[in-house]
Inverse folding.
C-alpha cells in the first residue's frame, strides 16, 4: 500500500482563492465532488497534484489519453490502482468496463485505505469518457450508491474542454444532476502573478519587459516556464513565437485538435473573428461562415468562449440587438 510520498509541498504561485477552495474540500466532514476546468496549459493538473501531494491521503490520479482506446485507458487505470492501494509487485487483471473498474477501485478503497482521505482525480475526463466508454454512467452509479456516503471521499474531475465539463458534469441532467459540491474555473495568471512567477524562477526583468511577455503569452504558466533567464523579453518572444522549434510557433494548430473533434470548423470560426479588429456581430459572422443559425453554430461559439479563444460582448451604447465576438487577447 502506498498512500503517497510525504514530500515538501511545492510552491504554488498565486491561486490564493483556489487554494482556499481546495483546503475547504480537503478538511470537509462529508464526501466532496469537485469539477475543475479551464483552458489547456493553465495549470489545472499542477494545482491539484501539488496541493494534495503533501497531504495525508491516498492520491489516485488517472489522466485521459487523447484518442486512446478504452482498453488502453483501463490499463493505465489498473496500473495506477496497483501503485496507490496495493503492495509493490501486485498485479491486477484489467477490467473489461468502467463499471467493473470502479467496482475494483471501490473494493480497494474499502479494504486498504485505512481511514485516510481518498483523492480520486480523473484528469482530462473528456478523453476518458468517450461516448461508448460509459464512464459517466459508471461514475454516476458509484458516486450515488457508494462514494457519497464515505466522508473521506474526494472525487475531482478535470478537463480542458470547458464546455464539455459544464454540459456533462456541472449541468448534467442525469444521475449527476446537482451532485457537484464545488466547481473551480482556473483562470490564467494576472499580471502581478506573472511577475511573481518569473521572480520565483529567478528571472529578473523590468516591469516593461514583463508586460511585453504578458501581452504575448498571457498568464499561462506552461508558456511562462519557457522564459529563459539569459534572454531579454524580445529575445524570449522571438524564441517562443518565431523560431520553428518554439513552443508557440505551431501551438494554434496543436491546441485546437486537442480540444475539439471538428477542429477545422472551429479554426474557421477563429480565423473569421480574428479578421475583425473590433469584433464581429453574430449575424455578420453567420453570413461570412455561410452557416445556418441554429444549435451547432451556437454550440461552437460557446465552446470557443469557454475554452478562452473568443469573448462575447455588447458594444457600449449599441442599440442593435445581438452579441459581438472578438478574439480573446489574453490567451
Amino acid at each position: 500500500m502506498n498512500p503517497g510520498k510525504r514530500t515538501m509541498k511545492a510552491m504554488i504561485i498565486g491561486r490564493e482563492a483556489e487554494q482556499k477552495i481546495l483546503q475547504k474540500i480537503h478538511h470537509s466532514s462529508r464526501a466532496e465532488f469537485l469539477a475543475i476546468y479551464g483552458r489547456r496549459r493553465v495549470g489545472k493538473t499542477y494545482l491539484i497534484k501539488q496541493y494534495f501531494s503533501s497531504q495525508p491521503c491516498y492520491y489516485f490520479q488517472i489522466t485521459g489519453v487523447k484518442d486512446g482506446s478504452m482498453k488502453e485507458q483501463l490499463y493505465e487505470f489498473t496500473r495506477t490502482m496497483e501503485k496507490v492501494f496495493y503492495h509493490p509487485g501486485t498485479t491486477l487483471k484489467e477490467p473489461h468496463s468502467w463499471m467493473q473498474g470502479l467496482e475494483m477501485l471501490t473494493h480497494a478503497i474499502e479494504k486498504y485505505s485505512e481511514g485516510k482521505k481518498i483523492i480520486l482525480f480523473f484528469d482530462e475526463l473528456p478523453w476518458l469518457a468517450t461516448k461508448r466508454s460509459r464512464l459517466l454512467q459508471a461514475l454516476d452509479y458509484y458516486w450515488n450508491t457508494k462514494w457519497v456516503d464515505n466522508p473521506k471521499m474526494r472525487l475531482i474531475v478535470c478537463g480542458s474542454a470547458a464546455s464539455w465539463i459544464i454540459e456533462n458534469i456541472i449541468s448534467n441532467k442525469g444521475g449527476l444532476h446537482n451532485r457537484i459540491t464545488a466547481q473551480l474555473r482556473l483562470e490564467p495568471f494576472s499580471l502581478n502573478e506573472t511577475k511573481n512567477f518569473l521572480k520565483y524562477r529567478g528571472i529578473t526583468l523590468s516591469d516593461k519587459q514583463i508586460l511585453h511577455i504578458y501581452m504575448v503569452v498571457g498568464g499561462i504558466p506552461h508558456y511562462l516556464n519557457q522564459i529563459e533567464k539569459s534572454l531579454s523579453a524580445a529575445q524570449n518572444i522571438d524564441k517562443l513565437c518565431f523560431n520553428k522549434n518554439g513552443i508557440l510557433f505551431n501551438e494554434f494548430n496543436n491546441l485546437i485538435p486537442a480540444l475539439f473533434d471538428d477542429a477545422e470548423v472551429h479554426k474557421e470560426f477563429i480565423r473569421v473573428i480574428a479578421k475583425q479588429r473590433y469584433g464581429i456581430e453574430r449575424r455578420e459572422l453567420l453570413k461570412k461562415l455561410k452557416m445556418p443559425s441554429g444549435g451547432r453554430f451556437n454550440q461552437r461559439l460557446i465552446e470557443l468562449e469557454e475554452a478562452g479563444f473568443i469573448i462575447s460582448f455588447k458594444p457600449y451604447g449599441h442599440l442593435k440587438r445581438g452579441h459581438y465576438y472578438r478574439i480573446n487577447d489574453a490567451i
In short: The chain has 15 helices and eight strands. Residues 191-242 form one domain.
